[in-house]
């Protein structure tokens, strides 16, 4: 085993070779999004200093911001205590992490008890149709 692969081998990859990843904004610590990475995505993230994820729907690497320009500059990478979740502390270029044009993907808040509803708590900063052409 090469020394370069040792840090990747510490991660507990699931049966599909993936690990869940949380992107958190540097400074505010707001959770921006959740995604998945495979070994190649994590290695490319380290090499580029920008978030690269694995798109399960497209079955390919996805450099965050490749279409939208909303790149995530990685300041820090952490591994949780069970070594099966990665946390990226990122600077979100353009302030938009979500494909809906919002700052965070976690913009829906549950309001109420058993009969409650999900309420949007963040505005759309940019129309997604103008982001993804």
Task: Summarize it.
With 133 residues, the protein is an alpha+beta fold.
Characterise this structure.
With 133 residues, the protein is α+β, with helices and mostly antiparallel strands. It has a domain at 15-101: Phosphoribosyl-AMP cyclohydrolase (Ubiquitin-like (UB roll)), CATH 3.10.20. It has 3 helices and 8 strands. The chain has helices at residues 3-9, 39-48, 128-131; strands spanning 19-25, 31-37, 52-55, 60-63, 72-79, 86-92, 108-111, 117-120. The strands form 3 sheets. A 4-stranded mixed beta sheet has the order 2-1-6-5, covered by helices on one side. Strand 1 (19-25) and strand 2 (31-37) form a beta hairpin. The longest helix has 10 residues, at 39-48. The N and C termini lie far apart (43 Å). The relative contact order is 0.17. The mean pLDDT is 93.
Task: Give keywords.
single chain; 133 residues; alpha+beta; Ubiquitin-like (UB roll); two-stranded antiparallel ribbon; globular
CATH superfamily of the domain at 15-101: Phosphoribosyl-AMP cyclohydrolase
**β-sheet strand percentage:** 25-35%
What ranges have pLDDT less than 50 throughout 5 or more consecutive residues?
none
Q: What CATH architecture label of the domain at 15-101 applies?
A: Roll
Structural class category = alpha+beta
Shape: globular
Largest sheet: 4 strands, mixed
The overall pLDDT, averaged over residues, is 93
Count of DSSP H/I helices:
3
Q: Whole-Å distance between the termini?
A: 43 Å
Regarding quaternary structure, what we see is single chain
Strand order of the largest sheet: 2-1-6-5
